[in-house]
Amino acid sequence: MKIINSISGMRKLVLKWKQEGLSVALVPTMGFFHEGHLSLMRSARSKADHVVVSLFVNPAQFGPNEDLNHYPRDLEQDAKLAEDKGVSCLFCPDAKDIYPPGFQTWIRVEGLSHGLCGVSRPEHFRGVATIVAKLLIIVQPDMAIFGQKDFQQLLVIRRMVRDLNIPVNIIAHPIVREPDGLAMSSRNTYLNAQERESALSLVQALRLAERMVALGNRSGPEVIQAIKNHIQSFSNTKIDYIFLGDPESLKQCREIVGETRLALAVWVGKTRLIDNTLLKQ
Ligand code: AMP
């Protein structure tokens, strides 16, 4: 597996593969790999001749008071894990090359970026859309794989790719969970033992909602109230949002009909966790 830092080096390698007629899958990440990341890599490997994993803790998607400086990093371990999954190249660009002095070009996906995580993280999706567009332009993959855990991010990227006519196939990958159900996240490492218990309130709330819907309850407000009660019964939790609405347009709904996305963001101590599920009538 090659570790490449320079944009020109990355371009050269992909050009060589393309000239050989080989397909390329990109898995964008911020590193500190867990089974969620590895599962994306495995899937990419099964679909393309070469997998490029980008590892870039993107400053532009962190707010001023967020965890950019504390975000967990372990390049050596990440490189071992990626190599083990058959990844051809780990692309770790420098922030000064991605955002050179004078940088002033941003991509904003209007509408889809505004609700849910966009409320408490107003510039987050601008940072995400811009870095993903840059990675797609640099790597020019045939496909790029993203986790459903960040489902709003996935919608934003799909919209951007359509709107800008970027020739890439965006593939969604299911949420990978710990044995007790907690959605895997690099940020789970921030949790102490008691917070780790409280973190389970998210997946439990999703399962509770699924059971209510399976039993015939269609009332959004009732489902949301039950979720609130459940999460608030755990210590150190603070709900950022509970979203119930259309899985594509993100329009909120009060009645659960057809397929409805339920998404949560919850502070557990100082850690903000997200999770989601698709409710089916
Ligand atoms: P991150 O390093 O957190 O930016 O995540 C990189 C990619 O991995 C994104 O597409 C995430 O949606 C995906 N991802 C992170 N955690 C999970 C998970 N538990 N299950 C599935 N995909 C995940």
Identify the notable features of this structure and list them briefly.
globular; three-stranded antiparallel sheet; six-stranded parallel sheet; 281 residues; 9 helices; single chain; binds adenosine monophosphate; alpha/beta
Structure description:
With 281 residues, the chain is α/β, with parallel strands linked by helices. 38% of the residues lie in helices and 20% in strands. The protein contains nine helices and nine strands. The strands form two sheets. Strands 1-4-3-2-5-6 form a six-stranded parallel beta sheet, sandwiched between helices. A three-stranded antiparallel beta sheet has the order 7-8-9, covered by helices on one side. α6 (124-139) packs across α7 (151-163) and α8 (193-214) packs antiparallel against α9 (220-232). The protein binds adenosine monophosphate. Adenosine monophosphate binds at residues 29-30, 36-37, 40, 146-147, 149-150, 173, 175-176, 183-186.
The end-to-end span amounts to: 46 Å
What is the overall pLDDT average? Answer: 98
Query: Structural class per helix/strand content?
Result: alpha/beta
Question: What's the main sheet like?
Answer: 6 strands, parallel
What order do the strands of the largest sheet run in, or round the barrel if closed? 1-4-3-2-5-6
The helix-strand sequence is: EHEHEHEHHHEHEHHEEE
How many distinct beta strands? 9
- What count of helical segments does DSSP give? 9
Strand content: 15-25%
- Give the bound compounds: adenosine monophosphate
- Residue runs with pLDDT of under 50 for 5 or more positions: none
Rounded Rg: 19 Å
Helicity level: 25-40%
* Global shape: globular
